[in-house]
Structures are given as structure tokens and as C-alpha cells.
Amino acid sequence: MKPSANPSTSPNPMRPESCLIVLPTMNLRLWILLFALILHIKPTFQNVLKQDSKFSPALERDELLKDVSFLPSEGLMTGFLTKDMPARYYFLVNKDHTPVTIRVTPCESPLHWRLTFLKIPQTIERDNTLHQDSQRYPHRKAHVQLFSYKGNGEEAYFTANSSAGLYKLELLSEETDTSFQVFTSTSQEPNTFFPGLPLDPRVDVISIEQDRVTLAWKPSPGSFKLGSKFEYCVFVNRLHNFKTLCATEPSLQERHRKGSLHRKDHWDTEVTKLEKFSKKHTAGILNEIQSIMKNLQELKRDASMVDKTFKGLQAPNVLKPDIVDGQRVCVGNRTNVTLSGLQPGTHYYFDVFARNHEKKTSSAYTGVFAETKDREKTRFSKLEAEEMTHILLMSKEIRFLKLQPASSNGWTWLFIHSCVHKTNLKIIVKGKIVVSQSIVGAQIFQLPEKADKYILRLSASNRGPSLVKLFATNTPYSLPFLSLPADPHLTVSSDVSTCSSVTMSWLGTQESNKYCIYMRNIEENLDLRLIRKHQNSCLSPNARLEAERIVCKCFQGTSPWKTVVQENIEGLKPGKLYLIDVYMFGQNNYVFKYPSQVVKTWDLC
């Protein structure tokens, strides 16, 4: 990961800030220099913030930056952020050429964080030395931004040849209150602290039944050396995949809270029954009943005992009912698991984490989703109107859906989006096929006949599983898109391309939509056919890096013949391959991704 410099401008004097500091061991002279630098950090830091337009304006508010402390030179730290309340941490490097690793893991919500290097002055004659030096030598850079990231993925900054000085880490959560983890190291091999991932970190679905799913994955490199200190944990839920293990903790805590309330109601009911029963019996039996009541009250107060009691009633990999919030099952060093207790015909998301107990670190495999088989082989499933329905079709699978509009007197519109492979659609009204078409990408249908019932027949191709999204409505303005491009493909204008730029064009619509362009460099030895083959037009740009985004713009065609959107991308390298993606946003932030396009700049100009 290459650091990039973003120096600050001349300082602006302001009052010093108090810091809560955990002091590592170092010589006295370096501490004097360090404290003098901290007392003068604020002026230059203010201008650094103003120059960094990508960072949140909340960090410019001086009164918010109060909680400041030092990061450990080696280890993992867990912290908490309040929404829009930034935090600042310092990391001290005593010697030049020291390897430095700083790894940040978001938990409940995405984080915006950045790392800045603060140079320690060699001489300090009086309190205003830094301010005078900045006026006498304005070309000297006292602050250098090394790294910046915004998202919910785990990211790290590493350099094998750092400079001695003070490093400043700033974190901000703009969505919700959240916890986070920061790992710091000055070791030559910091990756040994985290479990490794195989070259292919995907989780494979081996088999699917009505109430169970079997998963398998490749082993973590070096896991056998850790023995009992290492384990794999599988997290399953019905909402979405998770990128970090700590992100699953709120779901587990919410489930534990609901379970505690349920157990409380259960014990209260049992105690009430015993109290009523005790009034009808003699004093001898009453003593025995009161003893039972006492045991129940003690069991109720001892939450850990209750958890152990319930856990003992469950098989190791049998999940409890209602796992919307999520459940976690740890399987030791096994690289496969069968999860039972699932609901038939239900969509689940599965994540696998390699976990190191000793160092309290983890690494995430690439998650997977699957839908269990229906309990009964019903011929028709109901397609609800005004709701986005997700259907997973396995290879060559056929699925029948029944749509009953709210009113049979009005027209009905159907939005269908085949995310990966081609899907064949047939719409049947009163035994007659009124629509028969192959769907690639997204399409909108105005059903040709007014009817009180429609039968939809979906059949998958033999190229693998596919996810299909459907939305039916009686009002076209409720559709994710009012219209779709006539030809959803990207075109490269080779006549205006150069060694350092390419010009892309695509068809938009007559409605005003937002378009975002993302680009990343790829290697020539990659199989380009594989990139084109595995396109997923349902992917959103949330998982993309901020550095990959080129531009976002709104466009509205003036007529059906004038809907071409064009964008010139500059700053490229000669003779290099680039993968370009364009995302179109509709209502409720629904995303349609144009097929990816691989372009190559000219070698010679």
C-alpha cells in the first residue's frame, strides 16, 4: 500500500489542547521534544483539515477533539465512537527505518479514518519556536498525510521504512455510534498476528436441504501451528454478509437481549403458577414448593447458568429458531460445517471467520448466500405486489410465481432484474402465454392484459446459479426505474483515446438519474474472458474503494434520440489495462450496474 503525501499549509495560532497520554518508555530529551510538539499541533492541524476536503467537516470543530491518547507500540486496541464525535490517537516511533503497521477494523458502521505524520523538531529554544520556524521556512512540511480511508472494510497502512516521529490517527463515524479495533505493530512481520487467508478465500455451498446447509472452505495458512488457539467461526443471518467479526457482535447482543426477556417471562409465569398451587396444599408440601421457587429465582438471576442449560439442549451445529439477527457457531479447526435448524424456503447469508484466540484477532473469508428448499413442492409461490422479491435460481431450475394485483381493472407493471446469468421469463394469463422472453440485466413490462391473476414461469440457464429480483405494481412511478437504457453497454471512443486518457459513452434515459464511474488497474495476465463472463449487474458500489471512484454525475436525456452520456477519463498510464464500471441509481437508491468494460491505453502517442 503506497502512502501519499498531503502536507499542510502555514499554521494559525490557537490555544493548546490537553491530552490524556499513556507514556511508553523513552529518553527524557525525546519526551521534551514530544510535549513541545503536542502543544503546537493545533495551529497546523487546523489548516491540514481545511485542505483535506474529503475528510468530514466535523473534525474542524476544535471542541470535539478532546479524547486523545497513545496507541500501544504492539497490540490490539478496542475503542468506541459516538456519531459525529471524532477521536484522535497518537503513535510514537523512536527510531528511523522502523516498520510500522496500523490496521483499523470498523464494527457496527463504516468509518472515516486517516493517518498523519508529524515531524519532531530537532531544537526547541522557546515556546514559539515552531511558529517562528514555520514563518522563517514556509517550505518545510511539518505534517504529512500518509493514508485515508472511508468504508466498512478492514484496511491497513504499512511501511517498512518509517521515519522517527509522531503519527496521528483520526477516526470518525458519520452514521451511528460504533465500536472499532486498531492494531499497531513495529514488527517486520505484522501479518503473523492475524490469521492468514488462502489464495481462494471463498466459502462454498456443498449442499442445500429444507432445513440445513453444508458449507466448506479452504484452510487458513499456518493454522495447524496454533493448535487450540485457533478456530473457525460461522455466522449466519437473514440480512446481509458481514466483513468483520466484530461487526457481528451487535446482532448477537440483540439476540441475547431478546432471549433474556423471553426467559424472564418464562420464569415469572412458572413462579406465579407455583404460588397459586401452594395456597391449595398443606404446610408440608408448601415448604417443598417454596424451595422449588427459591431455586427458580436463583436460576433466573444466574444468566450464565441459564445459557449453559439451554446450550446443553442443543446439538453443536443446530441453530435456534428465528435467526434474523444472526447466530454464530464455532467449529474448531474443521473446514466444513452442516448447519441445521434452518427454515425451508428462506434466504440466508453465511460468513466464515478465522480466529486467533491468543491475540484476539480474526480474518474474514468471502461470504456466501443460499436459499433453503421449500418444505412442500408447491407449484406456485406468491409474488407480493409493491415489494422487491429476491429469488435464487439454481442451474436449470424452474420456478412458478402467482401475482394477484390489487385491482383487475388497471394496468400492471413488472420490473425484473436478472443479476448474473440469463433468465427465461414466461407470463401466463388464463392458460395463454402473453410474454415469452430471455432476460439479461433489467427489463420493465407493462402486462398486455388486465387480469385478476398472472402466472410467472422463471427458468435458469445451465451456466450456474442466478439471483433474480422482481417488483410488481399498479403505479409505474413506484418502479425502481421509470425507464431503462435501450442498450446497457459501455462503448470506448477509440478515435479520441490517447496514452493517458480514454473516452467512455453509454445510453442513459429520459429521466434524471445519477451515474457513478469506477475504475481500477488490472494485470495483463488476468483472464479477461473470466471478467466479462462473471458480471453481476446487481452489485452496488458500496464495496468499492473511494480511490476507485472517478466521478458521479446526473444526466437526463432531452429526447429518445439524445440519451448518450459521455465521460473523458484522464491521468492514465500508457499501455495499461483498466477495468471500468458504471452504476446507475434509481428510486430508493436501487442500483443497476452496466456490464464492465476492459480498456487499454495506447502504448505510443
UniProtKB/TrEMBL annotation:
One Pfam short name: NDNF
GO BP: any one term: extracellular matrix organization
Gene3D superfamilies in the record: Immunoglobulins
GO cellular component, one term: extracellular region
SUPFAM superfamilies linked to this entry: Fibronectin type III
GO molecular function: heparin binding
InterPro entries membership: FN3_dom (IPR003961), FN3_sf (IPR036116), Ig-like_fold (IPR013783), NDNF (IPR019326), NDNF_C (IPR045805), NDNF_Fn(III)_1 (IPR055271), NDNF_N (IPR056225)
Locations listed in the record: Secreted
Residue spans crossing the bilayer: 20-41
Primary location: secreted
Domain Fibronectin type-III: 195-362, 484-591
Alphabetized UniProt keyword annotations: Glycoprotein, Membrane, Neurogenesis, Repeat, Secreted, Signal, Transmembrane, Transmembrane helix
Its job: Secretory protein that plays a role in various cellular processes. Acts as a chemorepellent acting on gonadotropin-releasing hormone (GnRH) expressing neurons regulating their migration to the hypothalamus. Also promotes neuron migration, growth and survival as well as neurite outgrowth and is involved in the development of the olfactory system. May also act through the regulation of growth factors activity and downstream signaling. Also regulates extracellular matrix assembly and cell adhesiveness.
Protein name: Protein NDNF
Species for this entry: Microcaecilia unicolor
Gene name of the encoded protein: LOC115476673
